[in-house]
Amino acid sequence: MTPRPTNVPSTPFDRTPTRTPRLRLRPDSEASGYIDAVWWPRSSNLATELRKLIPELRPLAGPIGRIVYDPGAWSPTERHLITDRTIRLDPYPFALFGTMYICGTGGTVIVLQAIPSGTDKSLAQSVLAASGDPVRADMVPV
Predict the structure, then answer these.
(1) Is 97 domain-assigned?
(2) Domain for residue 133, yes or no?
(3) Which domain holds residue 93?
(4) In what ranges is there compositional bias, type Low complexity (predicted)?
């Protein structure tokens, strides 16, 4: 019997990237439509997911002071989210399920469409791919 190396994992390696693009911005060249970005969160916990989303949007929106969201798309949450600042969370039932308004303190507003977290992976990736450009640090204006 050949000894097994100690650095080989005992379970099969999962080749699915953990940081697959889940946020896409509509290209500036697209003048139609009012959705600026599409996002596929990993859960329906709004507070948890916003803590991951806000740093991605801050270079575009500046400091964020308010988020208006569709309460039908999320688990119940508090009225404020505390990150490096307090952000007001306002529920509002939108006609387009999952819509969010990310409001910067300087007046910038990003209209975002959230794909429900439980959406089939291939469908969600198709929607993201059709939505625009993936957000990458080198693509976001500073």
Answers:
(1) yes
(2) no
(3) 23-121
(4) 9-20
Residue 29 predicted with pLDDT over 80: no
73 occurs within a structural domain: yes
Amino acid 11: pLDDT: 37
For residue 140, is it within any domain?
Answer: no
Write the pLDDT tens digit of every residue in 94-131.
Answer: 888 889 999 999 999 999 999 999 999 999 999 888 88
> Is the backbone of residue 62 left (phi > 0), alpha (psi -120 to 50) or beta?
left
- Prediction pTM value: 0.75
Inform me whether the pLDDT recorded for 39 exceeds 80. Answer: yes
Angle, CA 81 vertex, CA 138 and CA 140 arms, to 5°:
10
Give me the count of residues in the chain: 142
- CA 15 from centroid of its chain's CA atoms: 22
Give residue for tokens 């505390």: 82
Number of domains in the chain: 1
